[in-house]
Amino acid sequence: MQVVRTLDELQAGRAAFGSRPVGLVPTMGALHAGHRALVQAAVDSGAAVAASIFVNPLQFAANEDLSRYPRDEAADLAMLEDAGCALVWLPDVATMYPPGNATTVEVAGPALGWEGAQRPGHFRGVATVVARLFGQIRPDLAFFGEKDWQQVQVVTRMVADLVLPVRIVPVPTVRDADGLALSSRNRFLSAEERARAAHLPVVLRTACDRLHTDGLASLAAARQALEDAGFSVDYLELVDSVTLERLTEIRPGSRLLAAARLGSVRLLDNMAVG
Questions:
Q1: Domain 184-272, what fold?
Q2: 192 has pLDDT over 90
Q3: What is the pTM of this model?
Q4: Does domain 2-171 have CATH number 3.40.50.620?
Q5: Is there a catalytic annotation at residue 35?
């Protein structure tokens, strides 16, 4: 596995793939089994697999602690090599955003609500860094986890709008045995909070079932159930899976989208409504 930290090294590593298609797995490190599933999906596609590790300052708001984001480069590299990654791109901030940098990617549409409203500027940062990674690595495929459903739709829309030559491949959410979606931030949950966190997927599954009989009243009941379990709910809504617009009834492609806090940890999850 090649580990490259400069653009010259990256270009040489990318050239070594020759005519093989390249599959990119963009990450911010602190890797877990969910990231391994992304790499496995890329390996299964038959592409040469490149991963990036870059904690992107542009997607953190002023009130969010960038320095607290977990980092473990040695463990990340060991996981990527074991999973079959061929190249890892590890740029620093000055390489990703060099002096004179003056361009960001403004996004609207699916970026406007939910995380876009809760974290102003977040998706501008995501779109900007992803566009730069696509330009640097020139992948044919890029693999994103469905746990961050809104992010997948934002990136997919950006690729379509800018006619970028890459196909976005969503990969299903990986969950712990109790159903909690894997996230790098789960490590900040206390033991008691981790036990309570398992209520989130249970409540979402129940709401998915009850939407068919109780309609939107099931969402109010779901929010109350989470609050009773100690969560602070940012949102729990029925949305269109592509546009992310709020829905007032179940339609084909409906999805439940949720964000809730336990202590200092903010948990995201989503589920398709059959």
A1: Pantoate--beta-alanine Ligase; Chain: A,domain 2 (3.30.1300)
A2: yes
A3: 0.96
A4: yes
A5: yes
